[in-house]
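Forwarding the complex inputs:
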Amino acid sequence: MIWKFLLGVYIAIITILAFVIPIGFIPGLGERARIIFLHVPSAWLSVIAFFVAMIYAVRYLRSKNIYEDVKSAASAEIGFLFCFVTTVTGSIWAKFNWGSFWNWDPRETSIFVLLLIYGAYFVLRSAIEVEERKATLSAVYSIIAFVTVPFFIFIMPRIMPGLHPGSKGDPEGAGPVVTFKMDPNMRILFFASLLGFTLVYLWIFKLRSRMEILKIKIQNKIYQEV
Amino acid sequence: MEFRLIGKDIRKSFGRLLVFDSINFELINGSSLAIAGKNGSGKSTLVKIIAGLLSPSSGEVIYQVDGREIDKLDWFKFVGFVAPYLQLYDEFTGYENLEILAKIRGLKSYEAKIKNVLERVNLYSRRDDLVRGYSSGMKQRLKYACALLHDPIVLILDEPTSNLDSEGVEMVWAIAEEQKKNGILIVATNEPEELKMCDEVINLDELKLKMKRQIVK
Amino acid sequence: MLSSIWAIFLKDLKSEIRTRYALNALLMFVVVTISMILFATAGEVMSGELLSGLLWVVIFFSAMSGLSRTFVSEEDRGTVIFLQLATRPSVVYFGKLLFNLVLIFGINFFVVIAYLLTMENFKVKSFDVFLSALILGGLGLASASTIIAAIIAKANTKGTLYPVLSFPVLLPLLITTINMTQLSIEGAKLAETFGHLRILFSYFVVVVIASYLLFDYIWKE
Amino acid sequence: MGLYEFLEKNSIYLVLIIALIVWFSVFVYLVRVDVKLKKLEDEFAKLENKEEVGK
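Prediction (whole assembly, four chains):
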């Protein structure tokens, strides 16, 4: 319990620092670059969460243990949540930096696709009643989805010109934010924030999967008694 | 060639519903096994597991040739399977169905074999009719032809005589006798008469009773 | 192995020729969507860019109406066990993939012909770019939709779910092909689209390999 | 009054406070779920143990 409390304090400190540390002047972004401490970690995390979901999907296919499937779904849910947070924060930021909430920048497209893929994933899960079949098919789908996602996250934004900092055709000035040639303070805080987000993710993930596993156990119990 | 078919502690449950538990058997060339039980007792599930169409929840089925284990992907080479839920392509003729099967299986010089099995199940004269026009008994005969096409070592019959007339039933008995000479025969049925086709019997109803008693204890 | 794949492909082709399950519906679908576009934009002058986007809309939805048939019809008619008992899962997968490839190239061919005849502003300047977009796009489209058709065939709601599941997986491909088609209208050289070609090709390879590895799990429960 | 005027001039700190409040409520929620779940798990484990002893 104590580390959870500490995590709370840690996140609070990071949030405060994210607003107050001097970040130096970044042309084209200015103070708006501070979003990197919240927006980018949550984007990273959604990808990590989806990756974990895929790992558990593979493990499910190997072992056919329904708990692995539960964990896979739990991680996908959290990934979806973080993905949503990223989309909303990014969109609000875009309004002030680029002038409109949505511009179909390659990176915006890619996050939109992520939302679509995992939206479809949950639809698929809800459409199948037999538990094992649901687990198998959704595992296969999440793996197929995951092997096509890299095209978006890693390749497309670099090939197609876009507005987002770090994409091809980006004005030289904003580059440092993504290539990590940024201010040392900023870099430390960025990674600290990434760590904090990861811990939060792990915590929620643990909670979610424990909850679902307990649910299954209780249902089994009830079934046995009847 | 010594063939061995082993079932070890097979258990199957659909979600929370346990179908059967701890089923064990060992069959070699010339032996036969009947699976008895009421409707819904899991006969079909068990034969599907043995044929490799379903995976057991725990335990395993092993195919061995001369002591060497066969990879699950290659089981299809050894299994012939007849069941009511097995469907054929009804837009093709009887002969075409067999031809397709032979080609997919990669059998060589299959014309003679197809002729042979068609004669065995007494469908040769109707070989060029579309399966759509077949009666249910004829479809059942064609399934036998499909199952026997590659001379399977393991022949699995689920409800062997469903839809068949008395002549057809005789044919099934002849096929069963032939199979037991050198191969393995597995029959799932709820008719006591057909249990006699086989030397050993697994009764899923009794198994269930036993399980219940254990739980009560 | 190869002959078995070919046998499955031939079986599907023959069955398709006899029953015309997918073919008729597909051709009508193409006709209907194209005339829909014509009605909706009657009198408007559409730019080449817009038209190249619409071309892929037509191709995508036609594919969605036809490509799931190979698996769904096996599942509906209960002939799955026939195939399961006859060969390895991967053989079935590649046989079906081959069939879907032929089908998608048929669709593409038909759509493009119909499109060129009806859309006056659709003038392709560099045919090599356009053709490679169609071919590589077709490969990718068939590969992804085949594995998703296999998933769909086992789910309860087959028809509605198919485009829902396919669309996000296919988007990287569609965006690239649309982009390439636009470039072909602008008259770009093939060498300029090298990046696109690489994306399309690696998409196809990645999806086929993943499907090959995963198909066993879907095919047999 | 000083604080109000301060926040009015430096609205970034207002945003900071809102962010902190959001984080705080998320944490409180997570801790509550955690505690409740722990309780349920313990109860369930007890139930299972009892049955095994009963057998």
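The two ends of chain D are 71 Å apart (CA to CA).
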